[in-house]
Amino acid sequence: MLEGLQIVLKNMAAYIQKEFPKTLKFWRLQSPRHFHGGDWNQNGSCLFDKPLEDSELDLWFDPSYNGVNKEARVINELIIKALQGTDIEPLDLTHLSEFRADAHPAIWLGKKDAVAIWGQDCMHWCLPGVPDTWVDILWQRVHYRLGQPVPENTYVV
Predict the structure, then answer these.
(1) Which long-range contacts (CB under 8 A, 24 or more apart) does 67-70 make?
(2) Is-contact 139 149, C-beta < 8 A?
(3) Alpha carbon separation from 17 to 4, 20, 130 (Å, rounded)
(4) Does residue 75 contact residue 5 with C-beta atoms inside 8 Å?
(5) Secondary structure element (H or E) that encloses residue 145, with its range
(6) In Å, how far are 51, 56, 76 from 28, measured between CA atoms?
(7) What interhelical angle do 70-83 and 54-61 show, nearest 10?
(8) How sure is the predictor about 61, in pLDDT bands with cuts at 50, 70 and 90?
(9) Which residues neighbour 126 within 8 Å (Cβ) at sequence distance 6 or greater?
(10) Among 55, 132, 134, CA closest to 99
(11) For residue 13, how many other CB atoms are within 10 A of its CB?
């Protein structure tokens, strides 16, 4: 199955390259999920109130540990291979986002039984920081690719 996905990704990259030759092109890699104890449809939850430690990441995400969201790293590798030889820049925001298991809306909904009422949401991001950092990185990459200096008085991660 991964071979088929690799063919699709290579064809997508070739199409984008051909149809948009003079355009800045970025491909954002996978956003991690942080379900614990099962996936979204298997009673998994993401009731974390602090970021993951560096030592916890591979247990969660490394394919050799068969962890939750292991597919993200496998698919990211396929995407990076498919983009080789193109001017499409991969934006690898996965690793920095893997730490932020606390940044999903599940426990921050503000009501006592919010998870019981609305269910888990371990895929979307709500806390300031993660999406803001993604925007800062993209902004900096655009400036770099256009050969423009980033203004000195601007905070960019």
Answers:
(1) 68/33, 68/34, 68/35, 68/36, 68/39, 68/44, 69/32, 69/33, 69/34, 69/35
(2) no
(3) 20, 6, 29
(4) yes
(5) helix 130-145
(6) 22, 24, 9
(7) 80
(8) confident
(9) 103, 104, 105, 108
(10) 55
(11) 20
User: Which tokens belong to 24?
Assistant: 């800045």
Q: Round to whole Å and give the CA distance between 73 and 86.
A: 21
Amino acid at 72: A
Instruction: Please list the helix, strand and coil fractions of the chain in percent, rounded to the nearest 5, in that order.
Output: 50, 5, 45
Cβ count near 64 (within 10 Å) = 8
Mean pLDDT calculated for residue range 74-91: 94
Instruction: Find, among 52, 63, 7, 1, the residue nearest to 30 by Cα.
Output: 63
Q: For 85-89, 114-118, 149-153, which range has the lowest pLDDT when averaged over its residues?
A: 114-118
Closest by Cα among 78, 44, 79, 74 to 61: 74
User: Which element (helix H / strand E) includes 136?
Assistant: helix 130-145
Cα separation, 67 vs 38, whole angstroms: 10
